Automatic annotation (TrEMBL):
It comes from the Bacteria. Residues 7-183 form the BPL/LPL catalytic domain. Its EC number is 6.3.4.15. The lineage of its organism: Bacteria, Pseudomonadati, Pseudomonadota, Alphaproteobacteria, Rhodobacterales. It is an enzyme of class 6 (ligase). It holds the Pfam family BPL_LplA_LipB. This is biotin--[biotin carboxyl-carrier protein] ligase. Gene3D superfamilies: Bira Bifunctional Protein, Domain 2 (3.30.930.10). One of its GO terms (molecular function) is biotin--[biotin carboxyl-carrier protein] ligase activity. It catalyses: biotin + L-lysyl-[protein] + ATP = N(6)-biotinyl-L-lysyl-[protein] + AMP + diphosphate + H(+).
Amino acid sequence: MSSEGWPPGHEKLVLEETDSTMMEAQRRAPSLGSPTWILAHRQTAGRGRRGRAWTDPAGNFAATLIQRMDEPPAKLALRSFVAALALRDALVELTHLPDAFALKWPNDVLLNGGKLSGILLESPGAGVLAIGIGVNLRASPEPEPGAAFPPVNLRSETGITLGPEQLLDSLAPAFARWDTRLRTYGFGPIRTAFLNGVARLGQPLIARTLTEEFRGTFETIDESGSLVLVTPEGRRAIPAADIFFP
Ligand SMILES: O=C(O)CCCC[C@@H]1SC[C@@H]2NC(=O)N[C@@H]21
């Protein structure tokens, strides 16, 4: 358990099995009261970004935070940075390995350069945000063809075994802490912290959107959370893309 304890007013629901914690969140959205973390020990139909499947072998972490948030979509989307920072903090707190983890725009946490986790934001109803987080604690899924980063897992990379509930008990207060910073001070401190921990700042990147590919130097993340690349055609601010390291 984190030294801060479980965030006041938040509920925790632990399921042995579900199709997807995102689906579980969607079913609960209409009657949602307090912010709720839904953890599943097994998902039979986990989903990733852009319609991809997310497989989590036994012992991995799969959870969704669902809460009411009456904010414009652009501000809601900044929770992806909040989630990544919170996950990085929770992992550092539990492993004491601050240098092993890096952030990848917009919301991945890398371990020794491999894909350790995935974060997915959805809105399962008006004014409701669901943030799904998967972490390869004990086993790596099969790499997808063409995957930018090989999946890695915490146990084989570090020799450390964490339980899903142990991670949740650090992640929930870490998320609440970063979320409070966003609400109080705006995106500035989140952006600064993310830039401090992000991989490949100042180095070449490839950003692929659904329709285009941009190659350039990773200059910064702007005030709206977009990736800023300096390309041969000039500076480009890219709101959403998959990132590859050339
Ligand atoms: O594609 C990605 O990188 C995002 C993956 C998100 C996976 C998590 S696991 C918990 C939650 N439930 C799901 O079905 N997906 C998210």
